[in-house]
Amino acid sequence: MNKRTQLTCTGLISLIAFTASYGKEPENLYFTKQRLIRYHDSGEYQRDQAKVINQAMQYLRARLRQEAHRNPAKKLAIVLSIDETSLSNYADMLKMNFGGTLRQIMEAENKGADLAITPTLQLYQYAKANHVAVFFVTGRTEAFRVATEKNLANAGYKNWDGLSFKADNYNEKSTAPYKIRARNLIEKQGYDIILNVADQQSALVGGHADKTFKLPNPYYLIP
Fold first, then answer.
1. Which long-range contacts (CB under 8 A, 24 or more apart) does 40-49 make?
2. Burial of 177 from C-beta contacts in 10 A (0-12 / 13-18 / 19+)
3. Looking at 1-152, which runs of residues are DSSP E strands?
4. Which of 39, 96, 194, 201 is deepest in the core (most CB within 10 A)?
5. Phi and psi at residue 212, to the nearest 5°
6. CA pair distance 178, 158, nearest whole angstrom
């Protein structure tokens, strides 16, 4: 073996050793996105949503039965998040391949064309029909108020009792403090928030609700 061949072999051995030293490689992002699409298109995502909302509906009905015997009755309310709780952004997420620039995301949100998540709409309508106030507390900012109000109404959410947005200059690292304050303000109006429904854990922490219900959302995380 000449010197050049020996050096080449040594280099190959070093490369093989380096490659073998890798840890377990995470799943390729392409395959992760394909699994997210299958989760939605198979209907499993919608079934999981319906399962959670059904539990919330059962709890609401139980509380209404309790209140029927209370004199005077409490002012009952429920709190709903909007994106991936009351309205679905899935079509836009898919179009942007579960990415997109901040500008693209904002433009999609400002179109106000998101579809209602049917089980949540049914919960909303049942609450309103039984004189339970419904408040939306969204992570969207005030800049999207007009588009959001139009979108909610077009999707079937009529005559809500309150709609809270973050300030346009909100700069806290988490949305949790804002959402906690929003629920606290609802309670100060004399309401008992009997349930809080959201797709993000940050929207459920901090109390100011008798019971919380977490909807599935594997598509993004809001701290």
1. 40/90, 45/216, 48/215, 48/216, 49/117, 49/119, 49/120, 49/215, 49/216
2. middle
3. 75-80, 87-88, 115-116, 133-141
4. 194
5. -120, 150
6. 24
Nearest to 169 by CA among 147, 136, 141, 198: 141
**CA 109/CA 130 separation, integer angstroms:** 31
pTM of this structure: 0.87
Summarize pLDDT for 5-29 with one digit per residue, the tens.
454 444 544 444 555 556 788 999 9
- Rg of the chain over Cα atoms, rounded to whole angstroms, equals 24
pLDDT at residue 101 is higher than 60: yes
Q: Could you tell me the sign of the dihedral formed by the alpha carbons of 93, 98, 104, 105, in that order?
A: positive
Answer positive or negative: Cα dihedral of 52, 189, 208, 76.
Answer: negative
| Residue recorded with tokens 């139009």 | 150
